[in-house]
Design goal:
The chain has about 100 residues and is mostly beta strands. The chain is about 0% helix and about 60% strand. It has one domain: Histone H3 K4-specific methyltransferase SET7/9 N-terminal domain, CATH 2.20.110.
């Protein structure tokens, strides 16, 4: 299976919460379907908003990384992209979880 990474240099300072020197990253499956998008700092540290998609193109989960660790509230979605839950992280560790009833 062929996988493609797309890196784009961001030259703007103050673009949301993205820091100077940050690269936008998109990961595509061999089918061409976008699987993951986010930002990396210093060549390998995940930072800012990251979004993960299923093979059918629907959003699976979305949340923030800070210094390479999950931070804050992450949102999970079902196949219809309806919110199914929230998971709160601090320093990469889950601290609470809320499940949304359908």
């Amino acid at each position: 299976m062929r996988r493609i990474f797309l890196l784009t240099a961001l030259a703007l300072i103050g673009c949301g919460q993205v820091e100077q020197g940050t690269l936008a990253v998109e990961y595509y499956e061999g089918s061409g379907q976008l699987k993951v998008s986010g930002y990396i700092l210093d060549g390998s540290v995940r930072t800012g908003l990251w979004t993960f998609w299923r093979e059918d193109g629907t959003k699976e989960r979305e949340g923030e990384y800070k210094d390479g660790l999950q931070e804050g509230t992450w949102t999970r979605f079902n196949e219809r992209e309806e919110v199914t839950g929230y998971i709160d992280f601090h320093l990469g560790k889950e601290v609470s979880r809320i499940v949304v009833c359908e």
